[in-house]
Specification:
The chain has 578 residues and is an alpha+beta fold. Helix content is 22%, strand content 24%. The strands form four sheets. The chain has a seven-stranded mixed sheet with strand order 2-1-4-3-5-6-7, with helices on both faces. It is elongated, with a radius of gyration of 39 Å.
Length: 578
Amino acid sequence: MRLLKTGPYIPGQEKLEIIQIWGKDVPSDYAILSHRWSRNPDDEVLLQDVQNGTSHTKPAFQKVMKAIERARIADGYQWLWIDTCCIDKSSSVELSEAINSMYTYYKNAKKCYAYLNDVSTNNDGSEFQNSAWWSRGWTLQELLAPERVEFYTSSWELLGTKSGLSAVISEKTHIEEDYLAGILPVQHASIAKRMSWAAPRQTTREEDLAYCLLGIFEVNMAMLYGEGERQAFMRLQEEIMKTSEDQSIFAWIEADDSASASSTCHGLLADKPKCFAHTGSTISYSELGDYNPSIMTARGLHTTLPLTQKPDGSYIATLSCPVSSRGYNDYLAVYLQRLLGSSNQFARVNCSKLASVTEPGKPQALYVRQNFPNFTTRPIYPSHSFQIHSLQVHTDHPELQTYRIVHAVHSPFGTPEPHQPPQPLLTPQKPWTDVPLIYKMDKTPGALTVALQLRRPHDAESFILMLGAGTDLDTVGVDARSLDAGSLEQMQKVFVPRAPGAWMETALHRVRVDVQARVRAGQKVYLVAVEVDALPRPPTVMAVLGDVADLVVPPVFGTERFATRAGVADKVRRLWSR
């Protein structure tokens, strides 16, 4: 810790002196300054200015000298701490140490001078309440930590003390007077309440909105400037959960009250203090039972919460927090949605509101995802399989309505192993197939898994439907060809994977394949829906001649009609051949 010596200094030769001390050698009778930095940080008196003897050249020099004068002459303190010149901000190690210790610095100070440079001496009180000092993140701990705080105008006239102005301060900050007066320790307030105190505040560097709360929650963590506001606030909450089981940390509502806030998946932890702006009255029940502490993992936040499933498939997760609007009875709750393909992974939804329940559900250990990447990850599972789900035929010719799958050529993976078959999502055997419906997939990009021969009994016309991997590990490819079934090697040579959903043309068929992915018990199953648009064979010459004969032969019956029809057809054929 560095401390600035308050003098005495010779007028006109004020070369400031500073000392660096540690641990038990730190004096117990020092004062401390709370202020807002200049818009241009270089205007402040920095440590290097003190060491180089150039402090007097800085615009903020008079602010420092007035604070020194107040500490030495008015209050008799030999030492003064000011953040601008008592921290070497060029050293990341020292800066991190100072930020982690700053709450203690203010708490141990005998007196804190809060200098409000935007409040004039002759004001009606509105300037005091509207000072920018109340909107800054760092000044929250500078208000709460010291036992004695004195407020000064821009000309260093005393406005009053924290205890004397507690009613006005409480109205401005929504911090109860008991906390301001020290009757209740700050740590007595719930996590949600302390977060709500920080909700309207701002910092110049976005990460500082989390870092400035370390002392208020009695935690420590490394400073990682560049990580961003959200990540810094995530780390802060993770550190808080290591020392507290207060579930009011989960009692927040999305600051953006838009439709997307209700539909977007989110984690259990908030993105910023602003999310607690309307939940500061939340407290936590004292007893959590035998629940394991919440901890962040690669799968998300691992915690235990009582769950109740709703008719729409979502869940209400009960928090160990009473409902303030119900006389602090019952339970607050949040809305969760189970993630696709998982039995115990969830996301918070409907983040713009909290629920309440009278009776909690059954406690369940679960994971709540905190991060949802804006890119698509590859959903690869140990086993991918095709399951032929449906076959639908469209045609204007009733005789072509029936098709059957009569033959299958499949990869060496073949049908699923007898001892570990993928579980079909629909188990009944289909009447339109002579082959198995499930085939384990070769996930190699471009690899053919199975070639199915579909045939219609009316005229024995058929086509080959091929199913396999697409161009990537997590895509599928389909193809349809008019050819006879051959070996898998032969089929692989002609297999051109196409994305499902488009019509494919063969000689007498138009084929479309739709694929839907489902995950069950750690296995991915692609449900395959086949649509066939059946076309008739083109007419032969004799069939055309027969149709012409039908038009010219008189409407007689029996063998006479057939003989006449044959004669006309023969004449037309001989005439056509000339």
